[in-house]
Amino acid sequence: MMRPAAIDSHRSLPSVCSVETCRADYVRHLRQVGDAFPIPKIRHILWKSKLVSGYFAEQLLSWKRIHPDWTYVLWRDEDLEPFVATQFPGLLGKYKSLQHHIMRVDMIRYMLLFKFGGVYADLDYTLVRSIDQFRRFHAVVTREPDPHSLQFLGMHWPVKPLASPAFLMSTPGHAFLHSVMQQLESRAPTQFSVAGPFGLTEFLERYQRIFPVANHPLETVYIPPAHSFYPYGDNRLSSSRIPYTQERLRALKEACQLLVGKSVSKNLTQYCSNVDNLDPITDRNQPVYAVHDLKKTGSIWYGAGTKFYNDNLTDCSKIFQRFVLGPELYKS
């Protein structure tokens, strides 16, 4: 793979880019050097088998409608360990040591993007509009909604990004994912160290500490606005039917109480007057590209709670014109 043109040294582009000025400068550089769309038109799907519920089939169809020319790659549970064993044998022991299946699924998505590039999105993502413009970047890590960040990373303004592993994009061999592979080798296999938003946020923060300035686009990670890939309906927390929502509202109210009498930003002051209303902290005018399912009432992978996850089963190979099973990518 040809290495992209170097970034002008006077620009001092940060390796992790999460603000508009940085994004604009990055895009300007990429257009100048003619580095078109390096992220391949591939979506990786992780699921138990080829059969998905009618509910998830509808979400997959939204991708087919908007990106019919993409290749859709299904990785079944039975495909995962052989992939690690053949493509990342040094990580097989760590993979097998992980206690929960969801931890292995999180680990696998980083390996798939490092090896093949493309897009990883959770099965419960509906595509709203083309994401081709994000293929101009070399890596995209989406973020959790702003109230999630305030709850877990503290009541900061601007809001500190809490990375989301639910929707990721990358070129093959990206420097950040190489860093993730190295960190996975050395980390103790706990749920928070390798999986979920906390593990991914730690990966990003460590990468940024070691490589604060990018020398090449292949070293840069773009983090788009939270609303673009993880919006709440009408910008209200209460639009979610996830059981944890009430606990989140309570936790945010308690965090706001701790700010009483302190000097805080206008945005946080306004938000704390009604933590259900995200308008003071989340710009709803940002375009929405994909919507994460906020109707679920139970875990997808543990099979609890939501009946329609298993209703009206559909063979997902019949949904897409360009469909392959994961092993075909490296065995051909």
From TrEMBL:
<dbReference type="InterPro" id="IPR029044">
    <property type="entry name" value="Nucleotide-diphossugar_trans"/>
</dbReference>
<keyword id="KW-0808">Transferase</keyword>
<protein>
    <submittedName>
        <fullName>Glycosyl transferase</fullName>
    </submittedName>
</protein>
<dbReference type="InterPro" id="IPR051706">
    <property type="entry name" value="Glycosyltransferase_domain"/>
</dbReference>
<dbReference type="GO" id="GO:0016020">
    <property type="term" value="C:membrane"/>
</dbReference>
<dbReference type="Pfam" id="PF04488">
    <property type="entry name" value="Gly_transf_sug"/>
</dbReference>
<dbReference type="GO" id="GO:0051999">
    <property type="term" value="P:mannosyl-inositol phosphorylceramide biosynthetic process"/>
</dbReference>
<dbReference type="InterPro" id="IPR007577">
    <property type="entry name" value="GlycoTrfase_DXD_sugar-bd_CS"/>
</dbReference>
<dbReference type="GO" id="GO:0000030">
    <property type="term" value="F:mannosyltransferase activity"/>
</dbReference>
